[in-house]
Amino acid sequence: MTALERAIASPPPVPGIGTRSPVEGLDRRSVGFVDVLAQSVSAMAPSAAATLIPALVAGVVGSPGGTVLALATALLLSLLVASCVNQFARRIAAAGSLYTYVARSLGAGPGVIAGTALLLGYGFISMFALAGAGHTAALLLGRAAPGAAGSPLLPAVVIAVLAAVVFAVVAGGVRLSTRVTLVVESVSVAIILALVVALLVTVGPVDIRALSLEGTSPAAFAVGAVLAVTAFVGFETPTTLGVEARRPFSAIPRAVRWTVLGAGGFYLLACYSQLVGFHALGLDITGSDSPVDDLAAANGVEGVGLMLDVGIAASCLACAIASMMALVRVLFSMGREGVLPAAFGRTHARFRTPLVAVAASVPVVAAVPVAVALTGVPLWDAMGVLLVASAAGYITAYVVACAAVPVLLGRIGELTVAVGLRAVTAALLLGGALVAYLVLEVTSERWVGVLLFAGGMLAGGLAYAIALRGRPWLRERVGVYDEPVAADVLGADPLPAAHGGE
Amino acid sequence: MTWSGPRTGQGADALDRAAPAPTDLRGRQPKAIHSALSVIEEVARSGPGVTAHEISSALGMPRATAYRLIALLVEDEYLVRMPDLRGFTLGRKVVELASLVAPPPPPRAARSVLDALRGHIRGGIHLVRYDGDRVHPLDLDPDFPLTDEPRALRELDASAMGRLLLAELAAAGEPLPGTVRASAERVAAIRRETEAAGYARQVAEFSRGYGCIALPIRGPRGRLVAGLALSAPVTRVEDPGDVLDRLRDGARSLEPLLG
User: Is the pLDDT confidence value at B227 over 90?
Assistant: First the structure.
């Protein structure tokens, strides 16, 4: 009789396994790989990034070849960070993403730093996405009803309506949320991909001179690569579905890796086609507000502006849904632990979503872009500021998470040299990138974004300090995740294996 | 024996849950499978809480290889990481693996009880085991094969041995598996009928003129662990008479052997 047969015939008792998960209430093990993937792809808003980032990076780098290289470098750096995030995702099934991971590794304090940064990332990107969707949808409506165009009320109303949609979809269940983002994002990517391919076909054979490196200094290249990293943030969002994903230790790392690879390929293709397109026309991409639109117009392709607007609005809406899904799950984890009021940790009995967290966060996130639209500040400028605050939050959380990898793995005795080196390299490179990014943005017209980020971090730290007062035990509570329950484990009470020598 | 209709009810849900099928097997993969199984064996040998480091030392396996294999086994839920994040224990799924590879035969004493029943009763005498919401064959009568064995084991609302488990699950308020297509009222009726009679019954569900009754075999704390079933012509099933007493005696003798 083998050891396995003996163990199955009479399972040894397994101590320390409960019958209920600490994160009970979410729809445990209910969504598959495609749903998980849909969430992370949507959170990156690849269509919007593919149309905006190349011109942005090219403006800093100064040469088309350098621009493509900067994007490729950002892709490699993001893959490195993703591999660090996956070290956690393969071991801990959580709803709190990097917040929970860091808390489990470095303790509650660093966990709250990562958590605050992550909340800023998700919150500001959701505001950005709502503003973007509202802005673009208002432009579309303006074409249909010229009378309404130009009124500040139109984008404000559109944003409010879209926020209500986000509320319903995020509250209505994890399966509904992921399926809606899947459909909306697929439409968006299909439109942009069709435009990019059409562009490549129109431009014709490749002119290698289009990708010269001339005029790019190493410093400019580095700054460009840092900017390009912001196109990748959001790839870690599937780690908020650790509780709800089926086979989470397989589905989530795969989704994280494939999102970075897929989006990276998409960006490189989009960037290349735009650069080649502008080169063929003898124009400068950095002078263009909407490169794809301008290229299409110059090549005489009709109706592209309209399709582009639909694609970007869809991408922004999917991004808002996916990012709010992630945000409410981090809030939910904090509520379960007591860092936030316990109500945040409550779930709706039928929808199995953290309804209080949704009700508390969606209106706040919607109010900012609505207010901006009403005050008449150009939405486009405000979006730049929101993006800076969001990217700073994301990258801060990534840096802390990468630094936390060797500590956790060392403690559980699973650290290998390769993984440790990768984590330290990622933390140092990304830490440098973060400093460079903050310096770059604080001296730009988007300095308010850096201020918002710094203020948010400070507020998060203060709120935690206040929450700790009189409740020192809170430190031990931080980091709840979906621990295995008796139903998962052979030999755990109260459901012993069926035929045993008891 | 007749084919009693298409097997249904195991479509999307079962497919969705199944692990991806191995598409090819080449190079070092057979060796990797061997190593993976030895990792499972090592966890079984060492008991709950064994760490990845201990597993790799015990097997003399390079650490990176062992960690990678453990990660794969955790992904597939054959191993479960303990709440301290250091240790591992066997996942409930290894039971599936083990029963696929080699279904454990019933003890010899149980087989002699079955032989005695088969010698005295005209009809098929079957023994099944219950595991969660599943029915596994332990010893099916070779002289009276089931009309549609996969359906009988899978569709809990169709066969008598399935209805026995269905009534038990319904009484405990446990979720019913996706293969149950009967309405809530129908399930409640099956439960009432089973509880009133003390056994579950099926008439002409699989082949005309034949039916089946299934008696519970209970383990400690009254848990349903196995079922003893008789398949016979409808008249016998509807009025089992003293056959029922024989079956009850048989079930009672099997209780200490299986419970």
Answer: yes
Chain A CB within 8 Å of residue B13 CB: no
* Strand, helix or coil for residue A32: coil
CA distance A457 to A462: 9
Measure CB to CB from residue A7 to each of B52, B90, B130 and give the nearest one.
B90
CA A458 vs. chain centroid, Å, equals: 22
Q: How far is B130 from chain A (nearest CA, A)?
A: 6
Largest Cα span, chain A: 83
Which sign, positive or negative, has the C-alpha torsion A155, A161, A163, A166? negative
Distance between A252 CA and the closest CA of chain B, angstroms: 10
Backbone angles phi, psi at B2, to 5 degrees: -105, 155
Instruction: Check residue A177 and give its pLDDT.
Output: 94
- The alpha-carbon gap from B28 to the nearest alpha carbon of chain A, in Å, equals 22
Vertex A233: Cα angle to A232 and A235 (nearest 5) = 85
User: What are the structure tokens assigned to A418, written together?
Assistant: 């390769």
Q: Are A13 and A211 contacting, i.e. CB atoms less than 8 angstroms apart?
A: no
**CB B75 to CB A247 under 8 A?**
yes
What pTM did the predictor assign? 0.77
Q: Output phi, psi for A482, to 5 deg.
A: -80, 85
pLDDT band for position A192 (50/70/90)? confident
DSSP letter assigned to residue A210? G
- Mean pLDDT in residue range A164-193: 93
The pLDDT value recorded for residue A405 is 98
- Best residue in B88, B92, B93 for a mutation probing chain A (most A CBs within 10 Å): B92
- For the stretch A15-50, pLDDT in tens is 778 888 889 999 999 999 999 999 999 999 998 899
> Is A6's pLDDT higher than 80?
no
Instruction: Answer whether residue B10 shows pLDDT above 60.
Output: no
Closest CA to A500 of A4, A2, A7, A3: A7
Other CB atoms within 10 A of residue B20 CB: 7
Interchain proximity A249–B225, CB inside 8 Å: no
Lowest-confidence pick of A133-147, A475-489, B64-78, B226-240: A133-147
**What's the CA gap between A334 and B242, in Å, rounded?**
64
**CB pair distance less than 8 Å for A5 and B98:** yes
Q: Which residue has the tokens 């700073």?
A: A392
Query: Any chain B CB within 8 A of the CB of A92?
Result: yes
- A196: Cα separation from own chain's centroid: 24
Sheet holding B224-233, edge to edge: B134-139, B124-131, B224-233, B210-218, B200-203
> What is the distance between the alpha carbons of residues A162 and A167, in angstroms, rounded to a whole number?
9
ipTM (interface predicted TM): 0.84
Peptide bond into A494 cis (omega under 30): yes
